[in-house]
Amino acid sequence: MTTAAASAGTTASTPAVQLDHASFGYAGRPFTEGVTLTIPKGEVVALLGPNGSGKSTLVRGLLGLTDHVAGRVEVLGTPLAGLTDRSRIGYVPQRHTLSASVRSTVREVIATGQLAGRPWWRRPTAQDRATVVQAAETVGLADRLDTDVATLSGGQQRRVLIARALASRPEVLIMDEPTAGVDAANQDVLAAVLRRLAGLGVTMLVVTHELAALRGIVDRIIEMDAGQVSFDGTPSQYAEHRATVSRAADAGHGDHHPYDHGYDQHDDDSGLLSGAGPMDGPVEEVTP
């Protein structure tokens, strides 16, 4: 599975995402303020923060779903307002299951990911159909293409949603809690999918509360609090940051962190800092 070739005017050195004192919000009122960061192409970034910290507002802003209130925002070298080809950004929403109200096969659901980049009157080409198969192969569901999605487990349905996002061959993939709502075994399968995508050089911004599930996959961690970036660094730097916060709290100089990403010394021993991952082999099938 490969992503789309870089569009005219962009190069390998063009950042995937560039924010300079950017603010996003609703009805013209900012909810995230003064965010400055650069995400290079091919980087895998975990976006952390408690509920209400602004992380969802930020990613929805990159998708054009919240108001761009202030600052400079560029995606793939293009100002956000001028990014007309939204298929260049893939999105996996925070949804645990697919609706069973309309009967659809895995193939049909994945194919809907191509609709945004194709005129309504043009029928799918042979290349379109091949890309759907490739997306299914990437998430380990090639043998389920003609299966009714309603019969799949929650973890399998989440993989269908990832494949749907990949069907447009995006240059940036944004995922909201991809490992949420599934058991530990299926979390490992989903982590293997993300590891495979990282190996293919896909730029990923992953909103998560479960950092331990992504050990050895993320290159960088960005933490938000009260609408602003409170930390930006590598996994090893984040471990030091958390240790400092914990020591300060234990010494009575501050509060414990208000949320838990499942990141502790056990996670360090399990390989988040060393780069070892939960699954280095092929994607395997896990049933509920």
Describe this structure as you would to a colleague.
The chain is of the alpha/beta class and 288 residues long. It has one domain (17-270): P-loop containing nucleotide triphosphate hydrolases (Rossmann fold). 27% of the residues lie in helices and 22% in strands. A 6-stranded mixed sheet has the order 6-7-8-3-9-10, with helices on both faces. Strands 2-1-4-5 form a 4-stranded antiparallel sheet, with helices on one face. Helix 4 packs parallel to helix 5 (184-199). The radius of gyration is 19 Å and the shape is globular. The two termini are 27 Å apart.
SSE topology:
Blueprint: E1 17-26, E2 29-39, E3 44-48, H1 55-62, E4 67-75, E5 78-79, E6 89-92, H2 106-111, H3 126-138, H4 154-166, E7 172-176, H5 184-199, E8 203-207, E9 220-225, E10 228-233, H6 235-250, H7 265-270
Parallel strand pairs: 3-8, 3-9, 6-7, 7-8
Antiparallel strand pairs: 1-2, 1-4, 4-5, 9-10
Helix pairs in contact: 3-4, 4-5
Distance separating the two termini = 27 Å
The percent of residues in helical segments reads: 25-40%
Q: Quick one: CATH class?
A: Alpha Beta
Strand content: 15-25%
Shape: globular
**Rg measurement, Å:** 19 Å
- CATH architecture term: 3-Layer(aba) Sandwich
Annotation field: number of helices: 7
List the strand order in the largest sheet.
6-7-8-3-9-10
Structural class: alpha/beta
